[in-house]
Amino acid sequence: MKLNDINIEYIEKRKIYFLQKIMTKDEEIDFHLKQLQIEISPMLTLFGSNNLCASISREDFKMNNYNRYNGTFLLIKENDDHYTDHLDEGEYLTYSYKGDYEQKKDIFKILKKYIKENSLKVYDDIIEIYKIDIHETEKTEEYITQIQIPIIKK
Fold first, then answer.
1. Are 125 and 53 in contact (CB under 8 A)?
2. In angstroms, what CA-CA distances link 144 with 3, 30, 85, 95, 131?
3. For position 36, what pLDDT does the model report?
């Protein structure tokens, strides 16, 4: 995984365990993800420590509401039957960065510019995958987050 680089990747369909809940603070997301992991992880085969995710609705992304999340979820292994939903297969604009979440606003501006310049259309919710987060380290400079935006050509 390359940091600070825009990529378009084809990603297979993925199973998830999704809990819908509107959240607007990083602390809410962290708490909700930890609770989700504690409550359901004994039933599930998880991808590992980097399976914690949150989503931003396409509408909130369009309106620059980057801190309004519509849910959290865990990525589930393909052979596991305990899941509530899935992420569609397809092309995703991906961007991974290191450090605190405050830089996300500037990153989303860059990604929106790329989407416009390359005649792409966002067709579903934006995904944040927390590869390394508060659950692995207390140092925000060590956080690694991957943004995945489902796209199609206009």
1. no
2. 9, 14, 25, 11, 5
3. 73
CA distance linking residue 152 with residue 51, whole number of Å: 25
Whether 37 and 130 have beta carbons less than 8 Å apart is answered as: no
CA distance 135 to 131: 10
Give the distance between the most distant pair of CA atoms in the chain. Answer: 45
- Report the alpha-carbon angle 21-12-128, nearest 5: 35
Q: What does the pLDDT average to over 94-102?
A: 92
Q: In the 8-state DSSP scheme, what is residue 58?
A: H
The 8-class DSSP code of residue 139 comes to -
**Per-residue tokens: 144:** 């690694």
**What does the DSSP 8-state code read for residue 88?**
P
One-letter identity of residue 62: K
Contact 82, 40 (CB under 8 A): yes
pLDDT of residue 18: 82
What is the pLDDT at residue 78? 80
Please list the residues that pair with 92 across neighbouring strands: 9, 150
Global confidence as pTM: 0.86
Are residues 54 and 133 in contact, defined by beta-carbon separation less than 8 angstroms? Answer: no
